[in-house]
Structure formats: C-alpha cells, structure tokens
Structure prediction request, 275 residues.
Amino acid sequence: MNRKELNPDESPGAAFGQRLRALRDERGWTQDDLADRMGYSGTHISAIETGRRSPTARFAASADKAFGTGDKLERQGQAVRNSAILEGFPEYAAQEAHAVEIRMFEVGIVPGLLQTPEYAQVLADADVRRGLFTEQQAEERLALLARRQASLERTPAPLVYTVLDESCIRRPIGGPKVMVAQMDRLIEFAEQPNAALQIAPYGMGERRSLDLPVWLLTLADRSTVSYAESAAQGRLDRDIRIVVRLLTAYHQLQIEALPQAATVAMIDQLRKGTL
Prediction:
C-alpha cells in the first residue's frame, strides 16, 4: 500500500496528521478502525492525516477519547486552527503539487506562485503590522509559498495559465525596486514554454467574466477542480456544475484579455516607467 510521506515541519496541520497516524500505527489500527471508534469515515481520517483537511475541535476531542490521550490532540488541533494557513488551502496545495494544468485569475496582487521573495515578504510584513498574523505565522505562509513555487520545477512541468487584472501590475507593492523585480519575474514567466500570461485590462469593463480570484486545476486523470476563498476559509470544489461554469468563464476571460505579446509589452512599458 502506498502511503504519503508526512513532514511534520511542513505546517501545524501536517504535524497533527503525522501524530494521528503515529498513534494509529502504534495500536495497529487501520484508518477504518479508527474511523469506527470516532464516528467518522476512513476517507475523513485519511484527509486529516495527509493534511488535506483541518481537524475541528470535535474531531480532535473524539481522537483523544479514542486514543486515551487526555486533551493532547485537542490542544494540538487548536494550534492548527490558529495557523495562518486558511482552512481548506492545504487540500488545494496538495492537489496543485500534482496538477498537470494550473489556471489562475487574480485581482489586486500578483498571485503567490509568481511572486518574487521580496514582493511576498512585503505583503507578509504588512499583514504582521496590521495584526493579522504573528511573525511566526507570516513565516509559515512564506515557507508554504516557497514550497509551492518549487513544485513548479517538477518534471514534467505543469502548464500554467495566468490572467491578471491590470490592477495586479498597477498597484505599487514595496516601492519601485520591488515592483521592477516583480515585473521582471512576470516577463521571465511568460517566456517559459509551459506558461501563458495575459492581462485583463481596465478597458474590458463589463466584458470581464470573472470578478473574484479563481484557481482551476486539471489533474492527471483530466478531471478539473476549482478553488475559491472567502475571508474565513477556502473551498476546493469537485462539483462538475460549479467547475464547468468557472472554466467557461475563464475561457471567455482569456478570449477578451490581451494576447501574451501585448501583455508583455504593457508590463515592460510600466517597468520602464517605474525605473
């Protein structure tokens, strides 16, 4: 049986999953055995162990009862819920690391996969100053971002389609030096054989088919999933009705957006004006 290797240093959720698996293995229980004792499904146990789902307070308390561990898992689960990583995002990141095609639409900021370290650091520092995260939580987010970016170097590399609202390149983040380096990064990305970059200009107006950021992943079996976020949580959706609607809107967006050559020209012109 293939088992995903767990890295407890990856995130609080991964550490919880590794601890849950270790306790289960010590007792010789299968995931279904533990599920029966806790009142959950084996699939749910698997998702928690691999970090694709976050443990709720109820889940952690039930696990403590099953293992006889007092409140140790409940306290560890609280650390997961206090993580800076939005609930639902680890499940998306796990799928992204194996996707054969990645489609992104972003508004306001350059998407994480294409951010330079300096650009990402400026955003993280701003969140810390506003009190949204602690410095440790900000470091956790940056570490996850670095791992996601590194995963793009896998072989074979995924096809990455990106449409940026014009606001992503117009909004000054971190000053001219940071922005010039970020625009250089976008131009370098557009030159890669597995990449496509387009700008959705302000002039599109009502023809812009998407109003909120959207992420779409095509997996190895050619199925497609979508991911979207609210202020409280992220959601990976496999419902074909939702996915097809978003995929259609994305294709309409690509048709209306600037071609890649015009996109690169716009970024380069803006870059020269920033120097």
Observations:
- The chain has two domains: 12-81, 89-274.
- The two ends are 56 Å apart (CA to CA).
- The first helix runs from residue 12 to 26.
